[in-house]
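Anyone else keep sequences and structure tokens together like this?

Example one:
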Amino acid sequence: MNTLPVVSLTASSFKFFQFPSLHPSPLSHSPRFCFTKSLVLSPTRLGHLSFKSLNSLSPSQSQLSEEYEEEEEEEEEDEEDDDDGDDEAADEYDDITDETRNSDDEAEFSVDLPAESARQRVEFRWQRVEKLRSLVRDFGVEMIDIDELVSIYDFRIDKFQRLAIEAFLRGSSVVVSAPTSSGKTLIAEAAAVATVARGRRLFYTTPLKALSNQKFREFRETFGDDNVGLLTGDSAINKEAQIVIMTTEILRNMLYQSVGMASSGTGLFHVDAIVLDEVHYLSDISRGTVWEEIVIYCPKEVQLICLSATVANPDELAGWIGEIHGKTELVTSTRRPVPLTWYFSTKHSLVPLLDEKGTHVNRKLSLNYLQLSASEARYRDDDEGRRGRRSRKRGGDTSYNSLMNISDYPLSKNEINKIRRSQVPQISDTLWHLQGKNMLPAIWFIFNRRGCDAAVQYVENFQLLDDCEKGEVELALRKFRILYPDAVRESAEKGLLRGIAAHHAGCLPLWKSFIEELFQRGLVKVVFATETLAAGINMPARTAVISSLTKKAGNERVQLGPNELFQMAGRAGRRGIDEKGYTVLVQTAFEGAEECCKLVFAGVKPLVSQFTASYGMVLNLVAGSKVTRKSNGTEDGKVLQAGRSLEEAKKLVEKSFGNYVSSNVMVAAKEELAEIDKKIEILTSEISDEAIDKKSRKLLSAKEYKEITVLQAELREEKRKRTELRRKMELERFSALKPLLKGMEEGNLPFICLEFKDSEGMQQSVPAVYLGHIDSFTGSKLQKMMSLDESFGLNVIKDELASDEPEKPIVQPSYYVALGSDNSWYLFTEKWIRTVYRTGFPNIALALGDSLPREIMKTLLDKADMQWDKLAESELGSLWRMEGSLETWSWSLNVPVLSSLSEEDEVLHMSQEYDNAAEQYKEQRSKVSRLKKRISRSAGFREYKKILENAKLTVEKMKRLKARSRRLINRLEQIEPSGWKDFMRISNVIHESRALDINTHLIFPLGETAAAIRGENELWLAMVLRNKVLVDLKPPQLAGVCASLVCEGIKVRPWRDNNYIYEPSDTVVDVVNFLEEQRSSLIKLQEKHEVEISCCLDIQFSGMVEAWASGLSWKEMMMECAMDEGDLARLLRRTIDLLAQIPKLPDIDPTLQRSAAAAADIMDRPPISELAG
């Protein structure tokens, strides 16, 4: 039997062992394996076949893939984004039942018979690589050219691959942007061939350990075991090899040494090239800064090969690398090697999402069509005889066009939601269609782990495997159980034997690897996975199903971004196997085909810089000399190297991608602003009174000109009077509103109606509940914000027409607050109040001891983040809106719609002065209208009208230019060099904590330790690990304390009867409580300097880790445990990673280092021990 070498790594030694391959070689299939002919099934026969016969029966081979849960620093966060909404995860599937149906479509099922084996192709490639190396040894590096590199492959490479390889051979760095699964790795492989043939070295970096492990295996097959090494957080295999695969953070830490304090060697000895795979991770909020740091710190003589999925701004990425690193060429490709077709699944069908041209939504998926289809279905359910008679009478015309005439009216929001709910398919509906259309295997993305598990249960009555395939799964499962008895997920076995599995962060890494293995062999037909799989190892399928375009994030649902959508869709289509790939979007209660199309056509988003400073960055860039202890106990500074000055560090930090984009944007924006100002100046002169007068004199006769001029002067005067009368009317209205609103500050909360015109000029009316005048919010966040922000300033309004009446008061608008029926807060002046009602909320406590409703809502408003948007503005004050919260939702639901509030309920009654002013305004409007008609009947009006129309067009053009100018000015105000402010803030914390003297660059022992640590908050970890309270701890107790430092994001997930976790020992509790005071001091210091870096210290899970380090078995740990297996495994691996660092850190007590090594060694055992190589 074939064997697969696997390495189990501990902090102290490498232990090599063998385990049988989980699948047989091509020559050693089990007796139960068989090949069957492909079936062509007619619609009639299809109805009599069970599901198990409707499948391709040719499993393909592949090696066991590695787990990818843990990255040595922060990659676990990528795995945790499927957590939100787990408590409600299965709600979406409550109504799902397993059904089987007969297909109306003819289906053809074929078997992919094995061609030349992958092993044979790899052997040929290895021979060709060796041949090229031999030629270079004999005849020199001139033998390396594009044709020689291409010749190692037994297929024709794509054009973009050839262009990228040629650029590399010219000595350039290369940025490659191409779709997922298009073959970008081939470029890196060819570069590695050229580099190895020259006798030099290449580093290949990936964002995830699983990807590093996968590339490690692939490159060893091509280049031989001796030529390939692996470096991850806890693995170091053949690290001096010519090709070293590593995680991105490892390379960043190497480069720190070349720019930081201990530059005895850069770690880049003889390195000619570095491959940055998945470079689009640069936009990742938590880890993107690592990619930028690598480009900034990398020696310029090293060529960079940056491989990215399709993004909107690859030119900016290439331009940035070219500016700070050296000559860089950009190669892009939008062509997918396997074309992708978008489908949409509803309750009754699976049809193409787009029309035949691929430019609009499929007509059969429009809301009107779906409404009519539902009506037609109900119509068919009527009495059969009566339906037949009616059909014969009316000709049975139920075509789309005829039915559209019946429903030619706009649908209300409730009708749209009703139609959507009626069309939501069950999982079994969609799976049945996928199987019938030969679209399996599929990766089915569901955005929470319990949703994935529930989906497996709902469809586990489907049989997607034939007897031969089922036998292969049973054999693989038996082998896996023998090797890893604790890693078997018992609840998943039933589904697995039917070709269905779940894959998410709640599973053990070993189990996920097993699922990946079976999927790649074709023995799992459907895997329900969270979106983290889209960024994981290579697991292409024929179809990718995306269950929803929204996912839960905290307490709300957020929409997927285009990049996320295309990343998941990119998993569809297997190169060399499928002629087409399919992405299936699913009708949900939240979105339909129109929303799907909008996202599909939105296009990918640009890369965005996430460059942020950290304690490790500052310490490694600035530190120069360090303190050494002498025998007499005094401290002295010994210079290892001259530390970088702050000015030099600033130059490095300001090389970030964000600053490059900002500087380009600023230059372009300033140039455009200057051009806009010139255009506005020219256009302004064209519509001045002098210019219009000049054009009028030229086009009109003297008599016509004189008549028009006199009439226009009269019109201007009448319009001025109209404006003043309108203002007077508004002021009288204000005078009536102010005392009314003031009288409502106490007692019940009345309903009001706000009215305004939106950005499109449409009149909007919003019912709301009135809270009070802004002055009643004394000391609130809102009042403080308004006092500091000039945007909320108000002008004193003077009544020009009443200026001769000294007793007439001057009116000043005021701001008021209300909560709208749309769950939005509104901030407004009297200008925007249409009316006030006598009905409202009674200001009475809902229960004994509760606060009054007005006080509750004021408290909820004070909790908001004060992100106000301006809806409308006028000289009488603006109207502002801010989104409410879940807590305000119940209040807003009780605000009635306007139609239920009658005019009889209105309490806003105007004074006689208002009525007089309104009458005067009305008369003046009529006067202006009559004067306009008189002008239109004048002799020269036709020509004069052309002049005015041209002037109007010019004014509109100026408005657009001014709007563009405002947007550019706002963007310029927002742009500022990123990174340096944070760098200096962190420097101040380091200086005050005595880790580094920022003035002399003298680094203290605390700083030395922090500079060498990998973690979220290096300074905090160093403070803890240097604390003498840890020295006397036993290894299990030390593990428990370390777990409290790395458990951020881990959650308790009580489920059914599983609601227990182990408690920590008293010793661990005492140590953590002791450390809390030190943590509080650091947090205060960080707050003083506006630094926001988490200082994790949470004892909740310390008992679980302490129990594992004490030797408890996995079954004992998981018995009625309130944690998912994957979460516990991730926590244990994080703890092991920190423990494994301790023996390597400088200035740490040797006793503590020995305890840490012992704890790491004890903990690193199955089923959480990782596979490497």
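And example two:
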Amino acid sequence: MDGLDEIRSQAREERSGTHIHPQFMPMSDLTLSFSVKSRSRRCVNGPLQEAARRRLWALENEDQEVRALFKDLSARLVGIQSQKAQFLITFKTVEEIWKFSTYLNLGYVSACLEHLLFDHKYWLNCRLVEDTEIQVSVDEKHLETIYLGLLIQEGHFFCRAVCSVAQPPEKEGEYLTLWKKELISVKIVEGGSEWEGVSLVTGQRGLVPVSALEPLPLPFHQWFLKNYPGSCGFSRKRDWTGSYQIGRGKCKAWKEYEREEKDELNFHQGESIEIIGFVIPGLQWFIGKSTRSGEVGFVPTRNIDPESYSPMNKSSAFFSDEERCSLWVLGRDRKAECASFLHTLAHTDIASVYRLSGFESIQNLPNDLSASQPEGFKEARTGRAWEEHQAVGSRQSSSSEDSSLEEEELLSAASDSYHLPEPDDLDDPELLVDLNTGQEEEEAENFAPMLAFLDHKGYADHFRSLYDSSFSFLTSSFYSFSEEDELVAYLEASRKWAKRNHMTWAHARLCFLLGRLSVRRVKLSQARVYFEEAMYILDGAFEDLSLVAALYINLAAIYLRQRLRHKGSALLEKAGALLACLPDRESSTKNELDVVAYVLRQGIVAGSCVLEARACFLAIRLLLDLGRHEEILPFAERLHLLSGHPPDLDAVATILSFLYDKKYLPHLAVASVQQRGTQSAQGMSLPIWQVYLVLQNTAKLLGVPSLSWGEVSALACPALRQALVACEEQASRSTQRALCLILSKVHLQHRSPDGAIHYLSQALVLGQLLGEQEAFESSLCLAWAYLVASQAKKALDILEPLLYSQKETESITQKGVVHNLLGLALQGEGRVNRAAKNYLRALNRAQEMGNVRNQAVTLANLGHLTLKSWARQPAKDYLLRAVRLYSELQTSVETDMESVQVLLWLAQVLVSGRQLASGRLCYEMALLLGLRHRHLKSQLQVTKSLCHFYSSVSPNPEACITYHEHWLALAQQLRDREMEGRLLESLGQLYRNLNTARSLRRSLTCIKESLRIFIDLGVKDKAAEAWLGAGRLHYLMQEDDLVELYLQAAIQKALKSEEPSLALKLYEEAGDVFFNGTRHRHRAVEYYRAGAVPLARRMKAVRTELRVFNKLTELQISLEGYEKALEFATLAARLSTVIGDQKQELVAFHRLATVYYSLSMYEMAEDCYLKTLSLCPPWLQSPKEALYYAKVYYRLGRLTFYQLKDAHDATEYFWLALAAAVLLGDQELQDTIRSRLDNVCRSPLWHSSPSGRSSERARWLSGGGLAL
């Protein structure tokens, strides 16, 4: 590993005078990259990758959600690089990097990124979810470097010796002697080439050269050794214990062994040995039976041929299905409760409550959670019943010889009470002891029952209560003792009689029981004496393997507690073998965790993953039994990483999902369930209680309070579908139907009726198998889904046979429900008369039953039907009656949301009848109902209507702004960024229209916020327009130094988008900013002439080019740049003839005439004016045309008289202008023209020339001559 090589190289540098400091370890940020892959095609899913990248882009500026996610993943977000699909993260502690690397290796980081980056459309698509995975990648070397740097910062960690180290003779006692691969606890010493070390094998302290050390690379090992301190064994002999698989069956000895202790087995080379239990690499011993002599004893692992036994097919921490199933205990007791919850969630009122036309909000799905809230959604902590574990024990006591021990650690072995049930509750054999007999006499016959019971050679089922960790023998075999001291005295006396009569097994079991009671009373030294006596008595006998295992493990636990290294090293190794190698063994002491920790340390020393996994499982099972759930998580995560095949993964994932839920880590809880599905074999099913857990945690992710659930997150769909598979396998039709109804609810909730129809079709088939009522309800649900999907014909195909089948039923309400749905279906088919008849029948049924709500719904449906038929007055009457009935009902979310829809229809009728005040009142009442229940979707619908009302129907800028602001707040709560951007853009326009300094500033704020959103969403055209809008506002606010900056940014954004039409539009609009203003108008020329015109010509957008040249002409005229104006006007006139649009041509030539007039080119001006008149219709069609004729002829008259000095032609023009004015009926204009005529006729010019000279002047254009 490169990071470790770096440590060693730094250590070598230290030896030459360079010291290690934490700052020398690089602590830069870690880059986390992701890509969205298709499993089937084994390549990147392009559309999804782009969607994920755009979602990430939107989160770049508002990254609170991302920060919260990475906080759950135990990392700190530094930044987001959406273009590269990357996150920058960092870590501050070893624990953070340990947790994150664990989640990364478990696949939870990928799953959590799916939660973040994909919307409901993805989660509703079953096939897409199954085919898609997010692959994440990090620089492993860099991650390792950060980890090592954090270790050194902490200054205390664990290392492995990379080579043997001997003490220098000159410094004997100061340095630590090490063997290769020995574990050492290290503390950094600043400024030296040696660190302080403590051997975990010998416990000795001393200095260790840094070059001989290698930090343990796995953070779990560091955490475990720090939190579960203790010694560990170490084999200095070369053996194979760390490299082979777990084995069973028979094996051969490849080396002779002569036992050193009586509990060990003698065997010869080549002898066949039967393995009792399993042999696990990493352990020095296993239990074997000689096929030659039949003896049982411990066998040294290194003396057998590892190729001779039968390896397990797959390395597993579980030796039996019973062990694997022991991890499922958490959910078993909640199965009934969770199934009940699912049925409550799926409960439908569709068979009794009418449905409203066009009302497709979430309340319309078969769902009635308001009446009966599921227990699981209450604020009580999840899994409380799973965690209840009552300890049993006695009063605390301690002998003087144990007073030096840490009593707080030992109190877990003691209990708070000594409960003795009645004899009728007992199943174990009873020891009939006469308590009235004086025990001081110690007569043998008084102890005969006890001794006979306990002196059985070998194991019997009734001994099970003697060995378990719950001390159940106190309440079964020895229930007749009311005081524990009395029982101890009796057992002690029995021990003496057993010893006197040489009753080996009775003696050993009595010593064992006395030792256990001593542990219970926290007298560990006394207990040790009893256990050692029992082992001495057994003298290596293995007939009762349960007793032997319990003895070794209890004694080993005491040795570890009392730190008796010199006395218990061999026993610890053998106790570890008994603990780990025997399948289905029950725990015999609460202190067994110390022995499990010792075994796990052995696995770390030997590098045996299988032993480490086995120890993690044993730790999990024991902690579950002890109710110490908060300590399980690290062991469960490590076991999951070490587990190799689906059954093991499923078992561990079950534990993990429960623990993540308990720690309030909703992303991880859901991810653990989802990963369980992706890693399992095909056909994997999900337990009901895990679906319940997913529903809870997806609600937490939605931010929905537990007591007010109205929505089911689409994120729960994969778990619901997996649970559906489980119900199909188990033929649980009722739960299967409930799951189908919930899935259909989610699909309808997210406007995906096709998915709802799929699941409701299954629900219908299941309902027909379950019963008549279930079939009826499922049929109604399916018909309603077809109506929502606008498939009225298919709804009719279901409802018409259903109505026929209801003729024989006595349920009036059910008939009314069917008639109401039939009315909706017929209305969708356009069959208005039949629809109205069915509504009226439904109304009659509701009136018969006195059901006010159903009456209100039917009247509203009738009102909506007549409204769509343009029968305004009947619609108004029906809807008013419906509103009155709704006002009589008790307030609830469902009825008030229906009232909102009815009030909207009524407002529509009133506004169309110009009853604006009443219509506005209906809108505002509807909004108040939405506000009362904080129902965002209904508020959104009403607010849209109010904005339209105040902008178009009854204009009121202030009110329109107010409701747009509320609409914006709703969009923010719904997290609809696209809607938010559009609304900010609209608000900016509304504020700009007010044209006050304050409103312009507010408009600028809105536009800039919309710009940020559009940039985040990657909507380039909207972003470019927002840049331009901001520039326009800076111009209006006279902040001229910023105007060009924003306009250029807008144009550059458009050019980069490679959309020429957008760039052309923005060039023109940027010029319009100056063209329509009063300052710096000349700047428009640059945008028009250098920007818009070349683009228009390239795109052959002739009309746009014409429009720009017209603006350039007008601009130059206003700036008195007549020569330029003539150029632009001529080009505009030429383009107008190309287009062939007479109106455009008229405008162009009129503007050209104006330019000629301004340049004193009067004959050309006259010709252009006449050209414009030739483009007008031959007869006047409107007052506007008459006014145009009058004005143009009047101007021609003045031009001819004053500039061209032709009185007669001027008179003709004035007469034509007067004729147009007469047709127009403008008396004032007529008087003005007559006055001009009089002046012309009385002028000397009239008398000096006998006739006009118009024939002498050029007529190139108006005469149809040469074109421009």
